[in-house]
């Protein structure tokens, strides 16, 4: 049967009820049966999880021989637990990468960390591992965080009583993470990439929805409900329903798109996560914006809402954030002058209302 146009390692078959099914079969990996058929919205998310080794895990020779109580044993259990599986697929890829690099590291005794016994890990060991990663403070802090989560799981498994990561401290990291796009930078990008181009559509999908690049690249006609976009976020599983604003609608209608997603690669398929990041990097460079990134647009959207006087609850309804502290990180770049002026106007208006009701003394000056 001709298989051109089908995803690599994915094959179609029919079950005993005559229903069309798809499966992922790749040498060295466990087989995976798709919940969706090719052409359905969730197919590509499942496929990428298989390629990343999450849905279809690598078959490690001898893995079943891991010594009981070792980190190899603990991590294999952790990968099958809700602690690891509940976060989105993108988060799982990050977590697995950190843990796999760590347990493959050879320590001073000539053995991999993965071969070490969980009960032997002490706080000073964790601090020494973090120190070896300097000057990469963010990476060291990420390792600390992941080891802390792993040891919490180990406590529930009865392997240890205390978490040796808890007494340690993270390194102080300067800076606010991804750069938040300014209005001048947005204008420069728009001038270089006009409406109708894929580059412009990529920007508009992120800027006018406030979503992550990983979600924007998979948005398509199937997410449209009336005049709204209904998106389930890949990272958190949260579902947001957003009005399709006029600039985004114009961009979607003007740019060439596929039947499954609005934004397609030169091969007519959805961008992979890595491919999308790379192409946005290229488009930013073409616009002379070396400090800008895809995730910075999500922060720019939050900044715009903050500058418009939106409440944290209103901003969370768009971004899908859960806590106010998360929103605070994303809106930290809101224009201070604009916000202070708005606060001043509200303050004076409130005082005037109180004066009118006889609750305050007359205001001094002309404000």
Tell me what the structure shows:
- With 367 residues, the chain is mostly helical.
- The chain has three domains: 147 residues, no CATH class; 152 residues, hpI Integrase, Chain A (Orthogonal Bundle); 32 residues.
- It has 15 helices and six strands.
- The protein has a three-stranded antiparallel β-sheet, with no helix packed on it. Strands 4-5-6 form a three-stranded antiparallel β-sheet.
- Helix 4 packs across helix 6 and helix 8 runs antiparallel to helix 10.
Number of strands: 6
CATH level-4 homologous superfamily of the largest domain: Intergrase catalytic core
Helix share of residues?
40-55%
CATH architecture classification name of the largest domain: Orthogonal Bundle
The dominant shape is globular
CATH topology of the largest domain: hpI Integrase, Chain A
Please state how the strands of the largest beta sheet are arranged side by side: 1-2-3
Structural class: mainly alpha
- Cα-atom radius of gyration: 25 Å
Question: Order of helices and strands, N to C?
Answer: EEEHHHHHHHHHEEEHHHHHH
What is the straight-line distance between the termini? Answer: 79 Å
| Low-confidence spans | none
How would a textbook summarize the main sheet?
A: 3 strands, antiparallel
Beta-strand fraction estimate: 5-15%
CATH class bucket of the largest domain: Mainly Alpha
Mean pLDDT: 86
Number of helices: 15
Keywords: DNA integration, DNA recombination, DNA-binding
Organism: Sphingomonas arvum
Protein name: Tyrosine-type recombinase/integrase
Family: Belongs to the 'phage' integrase family.
């Amino acid at each position: 049967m001709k298989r051109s146009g089908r995803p690599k390692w994915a094959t179609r078959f029919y079950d005993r009820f005559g229903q069309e099914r798809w499966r992922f079969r790749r040498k060295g990996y466990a087989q995976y049966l798709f919940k969706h058929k090719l052409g359905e919205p969730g197919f590509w998310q499942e496929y990428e999880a298989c390629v990343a080794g999450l849905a279809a895990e690598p078959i490690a020779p001898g893995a079943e021989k891991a010594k009981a109580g070792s980190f190899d044993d603990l991590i294999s259990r952790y990968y099958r637990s809700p602690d690891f599986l509940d976060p989105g697929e993108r988060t799982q890829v990050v977590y697995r990468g950190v843990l796999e690099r760590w347990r493959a590291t050879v320590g001073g005794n000539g053995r991999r960390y993965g071969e070490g016994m969980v009960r032997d890990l002490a706080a000073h060991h964790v601090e020494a591992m973090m120190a070896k990663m300097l000057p990469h403070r963010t990476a060291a802090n990420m390792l600390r965080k992941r080891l802390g989560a792993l040891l919490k799981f180990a406590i529930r498994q009865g392997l240890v009583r205390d978490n040796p990561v808890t007494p340690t401290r993270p390194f102080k990291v300067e800076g606010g993470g991804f750069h938040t796009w300014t209005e001048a930078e947005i204008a420069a990008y728009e001038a270089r990439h006009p409406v109708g181009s894929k580059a412009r559509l990529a920007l508009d999908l992120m800027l006018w929805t406030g979503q992550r690049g990983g979600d924007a690249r998979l948005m398509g006609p199937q997410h449209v409900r009336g005049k709204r976009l209904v998106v389930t976020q890949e990272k958190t599983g949260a579902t947001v329903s957003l009005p399709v604003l006029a600039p985004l609608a114009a961009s979607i209608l003007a740019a060439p798109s596929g039947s499954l997603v609005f934004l397609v690669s030169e091969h007519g398929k959805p961008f992979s996560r890595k491919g999308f990041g790379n192409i946005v990097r290229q488009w930013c460079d073409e616009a002379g914006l070396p400090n800008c990134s895809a995730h910075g647009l999500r922060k720019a959207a939050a900044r715009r809402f903050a500058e418009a006087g939106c409440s944290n609850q209103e901003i969370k309804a768009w971004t899908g954030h859960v806590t106010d502290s998360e929103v605070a990180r994303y809106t930290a770049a809101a224009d201070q002058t604009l916000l202070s002026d708005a606060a001043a106007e509200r303050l004076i208006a409130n005082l005037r209302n109180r004066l009118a009701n006889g609750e305050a003394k007359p205001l001094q000056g002309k404000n």
